[in-house]
Amino acid sequence: MFLLVLYPFLLFFAVNGMDRNDLTSITVSTVSLSVYFYFLQKKVFIFQNNFPIFFLYNVSLRCVVLGVTPHLSDDIYRYLFDAKLLVSGLNPYQYTPNHWLIQNVTLSTLYKDLLSQMNSADYFSVYPLFLLFFYICGSFLNSILSHSFLGIQIVFLLIDVFNLFLIRRFYPKESFAFYWIYFANPLVIIEGISQMHPEILFIPWLLLLIRLKGNQWNGMVFLILTQLKLSTIIFLFAFLRKSKQLLVLSGFVFVSLFIWKFTVFGNWLAQGNLGIGLFFHSFRFAGIIEPFFYIPLHRFGVSYLSGIFSLFSFGILVMLLSFQPKFQAQTKEKRLLLVYFLFLLFSPVVHPWYWIPFTLLGMVCRIPFLWQAFVSSLGFLSYVVYVSESYFYLYWMHSLLGLFLYVRKETNHLRKAT
Q: Where are the transmembrane segments (predicted)?
């Protein structure tokens, strides 16, 4: 019981004490959170099948991180900047933040404060309108509470509490150990609630995508997911086995892309050079497979092509996989998990919060809990890249070793089963 009581304090000290520019705080937080998360799963029997108490305990874990100033990521300042432009009747996709201030010298001090905190002041916005809607709602709540971030954190808390309810609703007969994987995951709580990253908004739609049967309903879910983040279009690869289903879903995706064309992609050239195109030719962070392309290409002076090569390889691999009978015979959630996992492997940018959807999909697919704890540690350890680029290899070796051990274990299990 004492260990469960101690967990909220550990989350509080980690979210307040972890500094992405300090190797010691990152290492201590990574080890303590992932190890504690792993061993506490064995203690959930203490709740004695009392789900309301278990549910409230996990809600309280999220309340512990409310009111924290996000210092692990700068993204929230760009979300707020774009949201405030929209509220003011301005187009956030027209100029970069620095250009906005040049064009509008009368913009309030608040805009300038947000600009000074963000790391994307020279880049065009890549955040769709539907996503910014949640930050607009949180901004209004911020003004009511006279707090810079608490309003948005409360909005994300309410959404994640709804996520917990949906998980229980769709999987009512599972053990508390099953629920623990998402309910108490430190990566979900810290990155999703305190740092306010949008991947937590994917969860209800992914659950609906798994549970819904009709093509039209799945198409609506795809429309919403791709209006939260364009990369969710990769989930279409999990639905290539039926031509009619693919046609319907593609129709909804086309509508979503049409909306993108008149919002984010209003200026194609600008987005390619200083917007979403940066993820293909410039941005690199904690990639797993991408470094295998970067290292040889760097020797020839064309390292900027590593992201393109890596993502192109992902596209070819997942396309070939999608038409394999064994892949098509898998359940919907397993197909979604495999597609997303391959995307994370080949993506040149893998921020810690990218693993949140994997946590949910891995839970419903019953992957080993040890692997979930490893993913949590992998996400937090990636912050060492901010300390020094040389520490990237520490993270990289950790990720490759974990993957090797997991794949070997699963291969041995498959060999014994067959």
A: 24-40, 121-141, 147-167, 179-197, 217-239, 246-270, 302-324, 336-356, 368-386
Residues 171-189 have pLDDT tens digits of 999 999 999 999 999 999 9
- The SS3 of residue 139 is helix
Is the four-CA dihedral 141, 56, 360, 281 of positive or negative sign?
positive
Instruction: For 286-335, write each residue's pLDDT tens digit.
Output: 999 999 999 999 898 898 899 999 999 999 999 999 888 888 888 999 99
CA distance linking residue 312 with residue 316, whole number of Å: 6
Helix (H, G, I), strand (E, B) or coil at 349: strand
The DSSP-derived string for 246-279 is HHHHHHHHHHHHHHHHTTGGGSHHHHHHHSTTHH
- In contact, 351 and 285? CB cutoff 8 Å: yes
Question: In which element (H, E) is residue 99 found?
Answer: helix 97-103
Query: Which tokens sit at 339?
Result: 């597609």
CA 60/CA 327 separation, integer angstroms: 40
Which of 140, 168, 171 has its CA nearest to residue 154? 140
Distance CA 199, CA 203 (A): 7
The residues facing 285 across adjacent strands are 349
